Amino acid sequence: MGRIKLTNIDRAYGKTKILHGINLDIQDGELLVLVGPSGCGKSTLLRLIAGLDQPTAGTLEIDGRDVTKTSAADRGLAMVFQSYALYPHMTVRQNLAFGLENIRMDKAEIDSRINEAARMLEIGQYLDRRPGQLSGGQRQRVAIGRAVVRNPTAFLLDEPLSNLDAELRISTRAEIAALHKRLATTMVYVTHDQVEAMTLANRIVVMRAGRIEQVGKPLELYNEPANLFVAGFIGAPRMNLMPAKVKAVKAGSVSIESAGGLKATVKADGHKLKVGDDVTMGVRPHDLSLDGSADGLIEAEVNMTEVLGPETVAHATTSDGQKIVAVLNGQRQNSAGDTIKLGFDASKAHLFDAKGERVRSAA
Questions:
Q1: φ/ψ (deg, to 5) at 39
Q2: Which of 131, 201, 234, 308 could cross-link with 86 by S-S, CB 3.0 to 4.6 Å?
Q3: Domain total of the chain
């Protein structure tokens, strides 16, 4: 089992409050990713779960047992750190065995666990090397292996890929996903990289300033962000967000316009909106095209283009100064200063009210 429940968790250092009323139910066997900008409180929350820090208020349960004041050693969890935290003077085998030897586990059981972890993580050939003889990716696999041999109730991973180069991040990310599938053990994974979150998570927790903004499956957050912050954070390139005004409200739709040439009728429940209200429309860069006949339209001046082969990323600015990014199919050669008309399917647009909250689609 590996269910972790946090109820009304606060954490303050003196008068500075880091976490505000965190409520979270982490299900047994899921890979939950905590994501958000630097300083949002995600690593602090992970340390509280691990027992490396104590909450100022609230309770924390593991499989129904209150562990709020239980030491880290007695929680049955294993943590993988950003810095690997390997003993440089020990071999890989000795690093893997160290924690098990400290609890006086039988040598045959230790060897069995090490061999199984080495097989899963493909580090068997490195068992007699020291960390200094390994690459960054190999050292990270050893750090994960040290957690695996403990057979923990849950794994806690604190930005484990941040020290790796881009290619290694992709391959090691795939290894972590495969490991989770094989072990079927709860994993709580902290990252500031929303691409990691989207590709790894069963569910994502988006945090900002010590609060949870939204919890959901990756595509739920991508397709139905609860507010402007989540809309701008989830997705790469980030969603285009453009201020506009309501021009008409009908049953199931809202017509909007902006000074920069944006015109669209968005499917939305507009019963809380009225003509003249300020709103923000969001559209994903991949949902824009050079189709002037589409039901949504943005006129903009090209600043630069990045021709990437199968697609072109166009950076442009509307007449009212809004920056727009469009990911267009094929190889486009628009020059700086060209005016382009970007069309989009208005059913894929997102609408947010003056408070930044999502205007839900009509039932």
A1: 85, 5
A2: 131
A3: 2
Q: Are strands 65-66 and 240-250 parallel, antiparallel or unpaired?
A: unpaired
Q: What is the pLDDT of residues 231-246, one digit of tens each?
A: 999 988 999 999 999 9
Q: Under a CB-based contact definition with an 8 Å cutoff, are residues 233 and 245 in contact?
A: no
Q: In whole angstroms, how far apart are CA 156 and each of 184, 191, 236, 301, 355?
A: 14, 11, 26, 46, 35
Q: Please, what sign has the CA dihedral across residues 152, 47, 24, 61?
A: positive
Would you say residue 118 lies in a domain?
A: yes
Q: 125 in a domain, yes or no? A: yes
Whether residues 168 and 254 share a domain: the answer is no
Lowest mean pLDDT among 86-90, 269-273, 299-303: 269-273
